[in-house]
């Protein structure tokens, strides 16, 4: 048994053995065996193949009888019946084998609220069946007012509270006396049939067609469509559950009465009053009157020789007209209100459009200012481009001049070196004019623009070293040079190899002559020291 209950897929092995399993439910006096058998049956109902096999086995009466032989397991029995009632064959078998009267007994007489709610849930499931549900509703309506069945489908818990309460409204007159009569009648019928079924499991349950539980004193009460007309006429604004069905049955009953040669005057007057009260309270139903097909009968009744009949017909037509006018006035009022709301909406819309136009105007003004600013900016950019073009041209000219000046640096440096070597007072003038610092900065610049940077640097170094040889200002020159780190890279190097042997333009060749600047001999060809051979 534990494998069937807890191992998925094993339940299919029970197919073909349900007659044996259900027969164990009849072993009275062995409650534990009955409980275990019920647990197994309950666990296999989740499998549709097992449910179909149970339906083919015709064993449902054994489960229904367990409701009275094992009352402590009624909750588990309901849980077992719930999936079984999804099968139409089992549902029909339950109706024929007393399932409805047993469920009614638990709903009306059980002291367990939870059990009664579960019973109402099962009733709701049965009533929702499209094939069998309408028949079940007719049967249950012989014991309970129809409103209880609607409550079961909407809220099982509310249906239990409704059964236990007292009510008096157009659709339900229910009190302690009515509840006791219904409960007692259901209890006796359920117990009587259970005894018969215990002796004969194939016994069929049925009730006479004319049977109806007198659940309240309704003598003199006229009930149509499940509505007490006396209470409805006193309270026509009551919200009915099925207004269309009620007015349809009401007009049909009126048509039947006026067709009789001598209708009951009190009944005809009550029905007419109910019709006029209904349309006075529920004018929205006027649109459906033509579809019901009773208007021709109302006008035809005006020709009746019975004075009471035309009178009631005129009352109905007058109420329909008044209600129609009232309905029309209400519609006009609603239309006027809608037009007023529409005008207000249009006014708000126009205001929004005005604000939008103003915003667009401001935006256009901003765009115009922006375009003007952009135009000014473009003009400024154009002027700037012209200035930059002019500046580039000036820089190009300047670079050309600088290039020409740099080419003259060699000649200047060579002349400076010769002047330093031959003019004693030149070192003092060089110190005053910070020429020493200027020459060192030339070394730092690199002089890459020169045709021969190394030779130019050599001329600078020789000029600086010539200034260091000055007896009077040599130390001052050396002190200035030592402040520059780059001088350490040049002061101990020999630079004769970097000097060109070309004559320096602008100077006379030959030995120095007083009053003239001359260039020393630069030729590497010296005179021979010995006479040529003989």
Automatic annotation (TrEMBL):
Keyword tags: Coiled coil
Sequence ranges assigned to domain DnaJ homologue subfamily C GRV2/DNAJC13 N-terminal in this UniProt record: 160-234
A cellular component term, taken from the record's GO annotations: endosome membrane
Residues spanning the signal sequence: none
Pfam families (UniProt xref): RME-8_N
Positions in coiled-coil regions: 339-433
InterPro entries cross-referenced by the UniProt entry: ARM-like (IPR011989), ARM-type_fold (IPR016024), GRV2/DNAJC13 (IPR044978), GRV2/DNAJC13_N (IPR045802)
Matching SUPFAM superfamilies: ARM repeat
Keyword Electron transport among record annotations: no
Keyword Coiled coil part of the UniProt annotation: yes
UniProt record, GO biological process: endosome organization; receptor-mediated endocytosis; regulation of early endosome to late endosome transport
The name this protein goes by in its record: DnaJ homologue subfamily C GRV2/DNAJC13 N-terminal domain-containing protein
Organism: Ridgeia piscesae
Organism classification: Eukaryota, Metazoa, Spiralia, Lophotrochozoa, Annelida
């Amino acid at each position: 048994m534990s494998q069937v209950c807890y191992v998925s897929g094993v339940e299919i092995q029970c197919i073909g053995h349900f007659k044996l399993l259900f027969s164990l439910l009849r072993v009275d006096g062995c409650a534990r065996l009955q409980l275990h058998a019920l647990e197994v049956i309950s666990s296999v109902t989740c499998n549709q193949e097992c449910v179909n096999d149970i339906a083919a086995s015709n064993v449902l009466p054994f489960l229904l009888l367990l409701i009275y032989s094992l009352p402590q397991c009624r909750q588990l029995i309901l849980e077992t019946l719930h999936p079984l009632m999804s099968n139409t064959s089992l549902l029909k078998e339950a109706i024929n084998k007393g399932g409805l009267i047993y469920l009614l007994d638990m709903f009306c007489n059980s002291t367990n609220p939870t059990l009664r709610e579960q019973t109402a849930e099962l009733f709701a499931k049965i009533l929702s069946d499209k094939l069998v549900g309408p028949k079940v509703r007719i049967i249950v309506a012989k014991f309970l007012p129809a409103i209880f069945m609607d409550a079961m489908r909407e809220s099982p818990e509310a249906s239990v509270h409704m059964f236990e309460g007292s009510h008096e409204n157009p659709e339900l007159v229910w009190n302690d006396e009515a509840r006791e009569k219904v409960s007692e009648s259901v209890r006796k019928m359920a117990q009587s049939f259970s005894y018969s079924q215990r002796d004969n499991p194939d016994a069929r349950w049925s009730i006479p067609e004319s049977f109806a539980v007198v659940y309240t004193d309704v003598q003199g009460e006229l009930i149509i469509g499940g509505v007490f007309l006396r209470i409805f006429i006193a309270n026509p604004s009551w919200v009915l559950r099925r207004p269309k069905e009620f007015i349809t049955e009401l007009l049909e009953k009126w048509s039947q009465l006026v067709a009789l040669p001598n209708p009951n005057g009190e009944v005809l007057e009550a029905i007419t009053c109910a019709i006029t009260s209904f349309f006075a309270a529920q004018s929205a139903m006027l649109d459906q009157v033509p579809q019901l097909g009773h208007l021709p009968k109302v006008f035809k009744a005006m020709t009746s020789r019975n004075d009471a009949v035309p009178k009631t017909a005129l009352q109905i037509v007058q109420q329909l007209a008044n209600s129609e006018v009232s309905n029309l006035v209400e519609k006009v009022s609603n239309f006027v209100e809608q037009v007023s709301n529409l005008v207000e909406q249009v006014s708000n819309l126009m205001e929004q459009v005005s604000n939008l136009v103003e915003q667009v105007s401001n935006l256009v003004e901003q765009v115009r200012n922006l375009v003007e600013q952009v135009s000014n900016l473009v003009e400024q950019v154009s002027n700037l481009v012209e200035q930059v073009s002019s500046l580039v041209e000036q820089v190009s000219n300047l670079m050309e001049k600088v290039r020409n000046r740099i080419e003259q640096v060699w000649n200047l440096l060579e002349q400076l070196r010769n002047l330093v070597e031959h003019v004693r007072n030149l070192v003092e003038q060089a110190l005053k004019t910070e020429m020493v610092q200027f020459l060192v900065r030339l070394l730092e610049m690199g002089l890459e623009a020169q045709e021969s940077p190394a030779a130019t640097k050599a001329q600078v170094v020789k000029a600086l070293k010539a200034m260091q040889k000055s007896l009077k200002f040599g130390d001052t020159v050396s002190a200035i040079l030592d402040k520059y780190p780059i001088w350490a890279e040049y002061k101990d190097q020999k630079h004769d190899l970097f000097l060109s042997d070309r004559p320096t333009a602008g100077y006379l060749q030959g030995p120095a002559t007083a009053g003239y600047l001359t260039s020393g001999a630069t030729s590497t060809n010296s005179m021979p020291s010995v006479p040529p051979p003989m």
